[in-house]
Amino acid sequence: MKWQQRVIQAWQKARELPYLGRSSFAVLITLLIISMLMGWHRTHPDDAVDAALQQAHQSQMDVPQGILILARVLPYLNLWVRLGVPVLLIVIWRRWGDLRRLMFPVSVASVSMAVWAIASDLVDYIAHSHMTEIGEPPVPMAFAFKLVFIALVYLSVPFALHYYRRIGILERYTLRTFLHPLVFCFVSFFTLWIIMDLLDNLKDFQDSHSGVVRVITFYLGMIPFVYTQILPVALLLAVLYALTRMSKANELISMLGTGQSLFRVLRPIFICSVYACMLDMAASYYWAPRAEGNREAVFRAMSVHAADSIMASAIMFHDEQTRRTWYVATFPFSMRSGAERMHGVQIREEDKQGQPTRTIIAPTVGWSARVGWRFYDGKELIYLNGKVNSIREFPEGKDGQRVLEVKGIEETPWSLVSYALRPDFMSVPELVSYLRAHPKAADDKLAPFRTHLWQRFALPWQAMALVLVAAPLGVAYSRRGSVGGIAGSVFIFFIFMFMNNLFLNLGKGGHLPTWLTVWMPHLLFGTLGLILFHYRSQNRDLPSFKFRLSKRKPQIARPRNRSAPLPDASAT
Q1: Share of the chain above pLDDT 90, in %
Q2: Contact 343, 330 (CB under 8 A)
Q3: Cα separation of 55 and 43, whole Å?
Q4: Which of 404, 436, 517, 561 has the fewest Cβ atoms within 10 Å of its own Cβ atom?
Q5: Any idea of the CA torsion for 325, 327, 333, 337, to the nearest 10 degrees?
Q6: CA distances (Å), 507 to each of 286, 298, 465, in order?
Q7: CB atoms within 10 A of CB 312
Q8: How far does CA 437 lie from the centroid of its chain?
Q9: Range with the poorest average pLDDT among 222-231, 298-307, 366-375
Q10: In whole angstroms, what is the distance from residue 486 CA to residue 480 CA?
Q11: Where are the domains of the chain?
Q12: 388-421: per-residue pLDDT in tens?
């Protein structure tokens, strides 16, 4: 036990060293200035910027001015973030518990992460400003909202810390009582989700020889999707646990006895719930559906032992204007890097009379917005009068690989895969791009995409509707009412989930307006929660509903004359 005591003492002495955080911050600033003087951006360029510059040089196009600016700025932001993480941990470790001294390092870290994330996204957008990675038209407004959500996520951290610092003792106690079960629910549900998913897909990871680092990285990327799935039930259970505990200990009655209203007492819980829903909306905008789609693509590729992730398979596409028929065996989830390609591609071209003129068969095919289509290691069949005239091998390139570059093909990978996409796995920018690219499609075809577009904004707030219902049911001024409130909240939760899926399917089928279907459960249960909260805030019993199977006939209650003498039994 002596060595443990020594370690603890050394830990305390290291924490109490004077000026450790400030000296670490000064060293970080010095290293950043030295790197600027030595031209760090020339020797250590950013990977995304370097890829964009190489694509521009290969296609002999002018490099956008925004890429040149980010090529000088982004390497220093990467260095600042990499070196700043350990310094931030040291400062937080030393200042933990002192909210006033903790505000400055948390604010600097939040602003730095926001600027770094926005600059990293701008590189990809500027590089594909006229056409994205698979050829769909870009949507500037949707991308601008994505940057707004990135800034909201990072910059909200110092505002949340400032709010916790400014509130009073009672509100801080209520917030801590609510946050403890909320964090416990998040950790527990996320762990259970990973365990259940590993039990289902562990064999696929083993067959693909995936290492531990890849598995951990894969599940870290699933955090936005899991967060959106477990937020409603986590908030519901946290509200019920916190309010039931405070009700049993008569803490709510004591707080109300100080003259505060029920809304004032529960205000920290409502504010924390709104903050969690805002983070959920940011995740649902882009990262959660992309993570879910990436998960399905990775496991689909593992099931067939493919090297790349698979977004769709067995795609058949025919363009009436160009008279080309495409068949793609597997389509990758992302074509951002040149290594990810389509597999098993066949193209059949026809003349005006419907006779074949050329067929291209290629095991792998690549595409980029600047270079176009490239077919690898395949054959080209030339027809004459509907019959095969010649079979040509692809010409051999400089690297020894047979490559065929075909100019003038108007189709893009987006044209091929768009009709096979599922709206469940598409983010808001992708949904908006799809709706703009297919304005003349049938309404029944576009109804699922419009419904999911509205759902990306409505889904996060279903947790807030559940909080409005659970809060008055969890508040009990006596021991007798707590169990009934918890049972009622759980019952309402299942009804809410059923109605949410019901209205969602009605919207996808085109039976109701798309905007109404996704917001209808929120409006119904939110209104119910406000009514129940009004009853509870007025210290009135919640309305109860009793159902009787049979009607009882009304009977006239006759008063009993107690002064009249009882009849004599012997006289009768």
Answers
A1: 13
A2: yes
A3: 19
A4: 561
A5: -80
A6: 21, 29, 20
A7: 19
A8: 24
A9: 298-307
A10: 12
A11: 17-163, 323-409, 424-537
A12: 888 888 888 766 778 888 877 878 887 777 777 7
The phi, psi pair for 315, rounded to 5°, reads -90, 130
Fill in the amino acid letter for 200.
D
Instruction: Label residue 102 by pLDDT band (50, 70, 90).
Output: confident
Nearest C-alpha neighbor of 380 from the set 345, 427, 337, 332: 345
Q: Return the number of other C-beta atoms located less than 10 Å from residue 570's C-beta.
A: 5
CA-nearest of 349, 309, 303, 346 to 328 is: 346
Return the pLDDT at 181.
92
User: Tell me, what's the pLDDT at 152?
Assistant: 92
What does the alpha-carbon distance between residue 138 and residue 207 come to, in Å, rounded to a whole number? 38
d(CA 316, CA 251): 65
CB 138 within 8 A of CB 125: yes
User: Cα angle vertex 522, ends 192, 489, to 5°?
Assistant: 55
Which class for 478: exposed (0-12), middle (13-18), buried (19 or more C-beta within 10 A)? exposed
The residue assigned the tokens 């959106």 is: 228
d(CA 164, CA 256): 21
CA 278 to chain centroid, in Å, comes to: 11
Q: pLDDT digits over 229-258, tens only?
A: 999 999 998 998 898 888 888 888 888 888
Question: pTM of whole model > 0.70?
Answer: yes
pLDDT in tens, 418-442: 777 778 888 888 888 888 877 777 7
